[in-house]
Amino acid sequence: MEDGREETIVVTGASSGIGREIAIQLAEPGRILWLLGRDEQRLEDVAAKVRSKGAVAEKVKIDLADLKAVDVFLENTFPSGSDVDWVYLGAAITAFGEVQDMTGEDWDKLYRTNLLSPVQMARHFYVNMIERKRGNIILISSLAAYAGYPTATAYATMKAGLLGLYRSLCYEGKGHGVSIFHASLGYVGTGIYKSAIYRKTSYEKTMKSIDRLGFRILPASEAASKIISNVKRGKSEFAIPGYAAAMKWVAPRMPFVITAVHRRIMKIYRQLA
Ligand SMILES: NC(=O)c1ccc[n+]([C@@H]2O[C@H](COP(=O)([O-])OP(=O)(O)OC[C@H]3O[C@@H](n4cnc5c(N)ncnc54)[C@H](OP(=O)(O)O)[C@@H]3O)[C@@H](O)[C@H]2O)c1
User: Which residue has the higher pLDDT, 3 or 36?
Assistant: First the structure.
């Protein structure tokens, strides 16, 4: 509760993984959590947990890739003057395979879900927030935004787009009392791999390849608590866990390190093909 008033928090991707954990961890009396996702049953499960912690939960079953429907939802539910304090934009999908094996439809799906949708949500809430001169928008992104990710090229492309949004909007927002955050994650153990699009590769091969790379896979609950604590401390651009923070720093300064990782990704991919 801020200044005795209820806080409103919007979480996209609240039905699973990191978004689910963020919603549950943020739940407390005096907070209203808007939970957006597609899977009604999983959304209800999160809503029940949020309510059990004393917060109000509003479930919204919506396909964020349907930008026209989302426009109607945003205009009706959060019209101009709405007071929203925190917006966590976590919804995304991923896709594995080499570019020549991906379809235009695959790219379009990732474009709408992972880039156009967060841009649409961020724009809508940003405009409301600058009217009230307060608010926070958190873009849940990836180390791939800085480093790229061969065999997940469409995903890396969209996340790099989010980085562009962050690096520009955060300066515009400063003058209006609105804060923008870019949270980059390394590997996190969530459903995103099971539900990914696979072209000439598979879930099993991809998980084997991630395992061989040897990076730590963070539990979703830990990823969520680290995102929340960084945001609370006002850290606007950060990467988690430690190896992701190191690679974010290294990517523009010592690109040969990233080249070595990418060569390894491709080597393992071809060995498993
Ligand atoms: N897991 C990782 O290793 C990792 C690494 C770096 C960054 N990230 C980022 O972390 C964020 C959360 O991902 P996660 O790992 O927690 O994945 P997840 O468990 O698969 O959760 C993804 C969420 O996005 C929602 N979503 C996807 N497409 C949607 C659509 N068209 N309309 C509405 N909701 C949609 C899903 O809803 P439904 O299930 O209801 O469809 C789900 O709630 C993403 O932005 C992801 O890129 C994850």
Answer: 36
What is the total count of domains within the chain?
A: 1
For 97, the domain range is: 7-272
Q: Which residues contact 107 (CB under 8 A, 6 or more apart)?
A: 154
Substitution candidate for ligand 1 out of 11, 12, 16 with most atoms within 8 A of CB:
16
Residue 75 lies in a domain: yes
DSSP secondary structure code for residue 100 in this structure: G
% pLDDT > 90, the chain: 97
How far apart, in Å, are the Cα atoms of 201 and each of 129, 142, 159, 167, 209?
Answer: 43, 21, 22, 34, 11
**Residue 241, ligand 1, Cβ within 6 A:** no
- 170 part of a folded domain: yes
Find residue 2's DSSP bridge partners: 5
List pLDDT tens digits, range 238-249: 999 999 999 999
For residue 31, the domain's CATH number is 3.40.50.720
> How confident is residue 144, by pLDDT bands cut at 50, 70 and 90?
very high
Instruction: Return the closest-CA partner of residue 242 out of 160, 174, 184.
Output: 184
